[in-house]
């Protein structure tokens, strides 16, 4: 895009770079690759969003109006896989690519070729995930994976070719994520500017360091789980089939050993970003830097040992239920440290509310709802009522939309002037924020009540007492979906031009990344800066 | 470093605050005006259901208080500590001194108390009670999940039957007005006595299902190849409705649970009636049926048990659910010349299912008469016109 084209002019040492499509295919520049990750993420955000709008349209009223249940099941599962693996994770990786070298004073990522490969694995994986929809149109197979994103055996053993496509897509996405993680760890551990000790390192880099470790620990387990599923499907093994000595619940253990840390994989980069934004717009230093670092580590460690709370109705033994309940509750403690530090960073500052700050505040409040409902979900007895219901759907959308996606939007508005060298339209940004936050609550707040009233998730049609809340939720979701076009338009406008951004962009910024020009030079830090204090 | 046009920016952000307040107020007001809404769990009718509801209510109060207190502090700061009202930023970045540390640690002491005492202790007792399925259990109900219906068995009295959705397709597809219990009604309700502790054993024949009746506060997975258990003691007579809660394939949204709780004498009468019904069905296996009888019974049983996948006209939904019209298997030989089962034949498929697919072993859920009728019907309907038939007695011999 414009950013890097612009930087091509003024600097030496990269005259051999090809132009056009070949440039993007072969680039090893962290900023180009970051831009590709973010653009891919935005595209897939709309793909996943379109799928769920079709689902919400079907759920507008009781009865089956638009689609058959089997197609409905495909949409909900692929929506989740696309949003998690192809929208949220690449957005966070895009941030890491762009910002980590700038923040730690490095010229680029440690492993640039691996970086390029890691990105270019994503489009084929996304195609694998969605191709079965297209194949079904030509009479090949019966559509995409219809098991929900959790792929629970034996339903996934029974499924059509969509399951195989999803398994291979997950393998490829997993390889891509592991390569990205290795790169980030190598960069952070080896390329920090002299004087930047680990404890002085910016919190965004810390959030990503813990994320990268979690990815490397958990993704191989998921890959193993889905490979066992593949051999159960095609090669006569019985890992998940009781008739052959297997156990369907084993799959749930393997899946959620990855699946729970995955929540923190999606959120830790955002938690790392928040203190930067809050400190900038409060014009005050980050509160509790050390405390936040140790909270990230604590959440990472605890996140690895609480997976069982995702299937408390599966009949776990009492000691396991108690263990998973209390260990899950204990996550509220490091999380509370983060909330405390966020608010303490704002406290007695001199705040102004530009779009990134609005999104950050919106994030804190709505993610607070996710955290508090998560606390009650941990209680085994009450969980029996919440589990598999719309209460859970609402809870994790507060965590992953308000926490994840709105966190990403915070980062995009905060850093976009740095990346492009132009200011975005503040008026459109604020409009986007208010439309998003109101329609988000309109969509998901009713789902808490649907869940309490007894509506199970993943059903294409429902009893009449659920009709009103579903209608409200559908209206909200369409406003929410359409509002995101404003986001894309604002980004597009900002890339095309606009008011020049200064090096520091915002009044209260602090850190190495704000000392470089906006946009930064092609090789970022050609001379390593030295951290003195 | 400069910030662009700070005064204008701040003016519009204060306007933004009032818009947020207004927006939230309107949303809440509009929702409260609609009377039909349910805001909480439906009325519980079991000890566990009551426990769960009171715990849920208590927790909701706790988290609401936490939410309000924490964000009131934040909101206060956002109003007072604004650049536009002339706030000067402080420079502190962490707790220093014993007093500050004390105030930093107080919220965590409170949270520890909330987590492990206020919420943790009642939760502990509730879990222990919920999982105690055996103490003083009066009777057993065995629940088996099948794609996409429930089979219920009463080991004490030998009763067993399948319970499936009874909402007509026309209502689902919008060709008829939806009834009061749309999607939450079944052909055979489970009947349980009021006031007795019923130990519920759950399993499944195909994929994982979850048995859930919100008013019982009970939800438990039914897992193929394993037994799981839970219990209910229903305190009030009535009809209680729930649904399968685990995605189990295409008709996951169409497998309701309906429990009718009745006083003891009524329950005894129901058991006697059900036993007589089963004896009559067993007698059906031994009598010789005419082809017309089998075809008529077969059409009804096919539409109830098979048409969801193979479709009313037998065209199926290939490739997941193959067509029966013109199918090689259906139009293949019926039985071997010695009257034995031919592997992978039509009869074998219907009786024993096909591993790894949604085609289940129907001998586990259907009577001999129903199986014979369905097989005869499939071989002679949809233009298959095989002309042969099979008697319930032959099915009985194959079991």
What can you see in these coordinates?
The complex is a heterodimer of chains A (about 525) and B (about 400). Chain A is mainly α and about 525 residues long. Chain A has 18 helices and no strands. Chain A has helices at about 1-10, 20-25, 30-60, 70-105, 110-120, 120-135, 155-160, 160-190, 205-235, 250-280, 290-305, 320-330, 330-345, 355-375, 380-385, 390-420, 425-455, 465-495. In chain A, α10 (about 250-280) runs parallel beside α13 and α13 (about 330-345) packs antiparallel against α14 (about 355-375). The model of chain A is unreliable at about 1-15 (pLDDT under 50). Chain B is α+β, with helices and mostly antiparallel strands and about 400 residues long. Chain B folds into four domains: about 5-40, no CATH class; about 40-70 and about 100-130; about 140-175 and about 185-280, Cupredoxins -  blue copper proteins (Immunoglobulin-like, Sandwich); about 285-400, Cytochrome Bc1 Complex, Chain D, domain 2 (Orthogonal Bundle), CATH 1.10.760. Chain B contains ten helices and ten strands. Chain B has helices spanning about 5-35, 45-80, 95-130, 170, 265-285, 290-305, 305-310, 345-350, 370-380, 390-399; strands spanning about 140-145, 150-155, 160-165, 190-195, 195-205, 210-215, 220, 230-235, 240-245, 255-260. In chain B, a hairpin with a 4-residue loop joins β2 (about 150-155) and β3. In chain B, α2 (about 45-80) runs antiparallel to α3 (about 95-130), α6 (about 290-305) crosses α9 and α9 (about 370-380) crosses α10. Chains A and B meet through α4, α7, α10, α11 and α12 of A and α1, α2, α3, β7 and β9 of B. Chain A: Belongs to the heme-copper respiratory oxidase family. Chain A: This is Cytochrome c oxidase subunit 1. Chain A: Keywords: Cell membrane, Copper, Electron transport, Heme, Iron, Membrane, Metal-binding, Respiratory chain, Translocase, Transmembrane, Transmembrane helix, Transport. Chain A: Pathway: Energy metabolism; oxidative phosphorylation.
């Amino acid at each position: 895009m414009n950013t890097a084209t612009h930087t091509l002019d003024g600097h030496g040492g990269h005259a051999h770079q090809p132009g056009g499509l070949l440039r993007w295919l072969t680039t090893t520049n962290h900023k180009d690759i970051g831009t590709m990750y973010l653009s891919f993420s935005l595209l897939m955000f709309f793909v996943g969003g379109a799928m769920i709008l079709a689902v919400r349209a079907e759920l507008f009223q009781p009865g089956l109006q638009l689609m058959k249940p089997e197609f409905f099941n495909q949409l909900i599962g692929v929506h989740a896989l696309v949003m998690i693996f192809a929208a949220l994770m690449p957005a966070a990786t895009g941030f890491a690519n762009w910002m980590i070298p700038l923040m730690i004073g490095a010229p680029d990522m440690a492993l640039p070729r691996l970086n390029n490969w890691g990105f270019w694995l994503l489009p084929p994986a996304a195609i694998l995930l969605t191709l079965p929809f297209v194949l079904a149109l030509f009479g090949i197979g019966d559509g995409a994976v219809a098991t929900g994103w959790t792929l629970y055996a034996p339903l996934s053993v029974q499924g059509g070719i969509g399951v195989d496509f999803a398994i291979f897509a997950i393998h490829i996405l997993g390889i891509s994520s592991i390569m990205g993680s290795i790169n980030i760890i190598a960069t952070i551990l080896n390329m920090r500017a002299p004087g930047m000790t680990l404890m002085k390192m910016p919190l965004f880099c810390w959030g990503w360091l813990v994320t990268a470790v979690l990815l490397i620990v958990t993704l191989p387990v998921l890959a193993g789980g889905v490979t066992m599923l593949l051999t159960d499907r095609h090669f006569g093994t019985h890992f998940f089939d009781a008739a052959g000595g297997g156990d369907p619940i084993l799959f749930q253990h393997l899946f959620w050993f990855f699946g729970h840390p995955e929540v923190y994989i999606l959120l830790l980069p955002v938690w790392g970003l928040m203190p930067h934004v809050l400190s900038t717009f409060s014009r005050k230093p980050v509160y509790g830097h050390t405390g936040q670092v140790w909270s990230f580590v604590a959440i990472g460690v605890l996140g690895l040992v609480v997976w069982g709370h995702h299937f408390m109705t599966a009949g776990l033994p009492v000691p396991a239920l108690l263990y998973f309940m209390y260990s899950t509750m204990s996550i509220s403690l490091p999380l509370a440290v983060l909330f405390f530090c966020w608010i303490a960073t704002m406290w007695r500052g001199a705040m102004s509310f530009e779009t990134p700050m609005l999104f950050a505040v919106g994030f804190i409040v709505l993610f607070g709802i996710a955290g508090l409902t998560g606390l009650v979900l941990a209680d085994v007895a009450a969980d029996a009522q919440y589990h598999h219901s719309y209460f859970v759907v609402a809870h994790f959308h507060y965590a992953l939309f308000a926490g994840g996606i709105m966190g990403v939007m915070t980062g995009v508005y905060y850093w976009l002037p740095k990346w492009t060298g132009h200011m975005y339209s503040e008026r459109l940004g604020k409009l986007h924020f208010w439309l998003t936050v109101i329609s988000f609550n309109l969509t998901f707040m009713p789902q808490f009540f649907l869940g309490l009233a007894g509506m199970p998730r993943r059903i294409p049609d429902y009893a009449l007492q659920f009709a009103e809340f579903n209608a409200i939720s559908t209206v909200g979701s369409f406003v929410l979906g359409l509002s995101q076009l404003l986001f894309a338009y604002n980004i597009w406008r900002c890339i095309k031009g606009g008011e020049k951004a200064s090096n520091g962009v915002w009044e209260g910024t602090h850190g190495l990344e704000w000392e470089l020009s906006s946009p930064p030079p092609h090789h970022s830090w050609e001379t390593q800066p030295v951290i003195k204090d | 470093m400069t910030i662009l046009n700070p005064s204008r920016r701040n003016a519009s952000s204060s306007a933004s605050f009032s818009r947020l307040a207004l927006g939230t107020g309107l949303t809440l007001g509009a929702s409260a005006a609609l009377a039909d809404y349910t805001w909480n769990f439906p009325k519980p009718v079991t000890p566990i259901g009551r426990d769960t509801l009171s715990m849920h209510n208590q927790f909701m109060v706790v988290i609401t208080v936490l939410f309000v207190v924490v964000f009131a502090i934040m909101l206060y700061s956002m109003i007072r500590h604004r650049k536009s009202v002339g706030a000067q930023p402080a420079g502190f970045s962490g707790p220093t001194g014993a007093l500050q540390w004390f105030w930093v640690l107080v919220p965590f002491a409170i949270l520890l108390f909330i987590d492990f005492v206020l919420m943790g202790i009642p939760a502990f007792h509730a879990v222990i009670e919920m999982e105690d399925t055996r103490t003083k259990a009066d009777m057993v109900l065995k629940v088996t999940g099948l794609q996409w219906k429930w089979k219920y068995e009463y080991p004490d009295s030998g009763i067993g039957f399948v319970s499936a959705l009874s909402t007509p397709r026309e209502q689902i597809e919008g060709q008829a007005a939806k009834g009061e219990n749309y999607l939450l009604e079944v052909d055979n309700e489970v009947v349980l006595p009021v006031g007795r502790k019923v130990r519920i054993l759950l399993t499944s024949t195909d994929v994982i299902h979850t048995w859930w009746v919100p008013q019982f506060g009970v939800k438990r997975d039914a897992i193929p190849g394993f037994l799981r258990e839970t219990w209910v003691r229903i305190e009030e007579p009535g009809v209680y409705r729930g649904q399968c809660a685990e995605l189990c394939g295409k008709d996951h949204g169409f497998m309701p649970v309906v429990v009718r709780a009745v006083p003891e004498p009524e329950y005894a009468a129901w058991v006697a009636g059900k036993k007589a019904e089963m004896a009559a069905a067993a007698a059906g296996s031994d009598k010789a049926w005419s082809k017309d009888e089998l075809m008529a019974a077969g059409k009804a049983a096919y539409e109830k048990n098979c048409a969801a996948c193979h479709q009313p006209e037998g065209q199926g939904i290939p490739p997941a659910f193959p067509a029966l019209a013109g199918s090689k298997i259906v139009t293949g030989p019926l039985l071997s010349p010695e009257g034995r089962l031919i592997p992978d034949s039509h009869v074998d498929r219907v009786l024993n299912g096909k591993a790894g697919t949604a085609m289940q072993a129907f001998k586990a859920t259907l009577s001999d008469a129903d199986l014979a009728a369905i097989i005869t019907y499939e071989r002679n309907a949809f233009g298959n016109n095989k002309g042969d038939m099979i008697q319930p007695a032959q099915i009985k011999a194959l079991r």
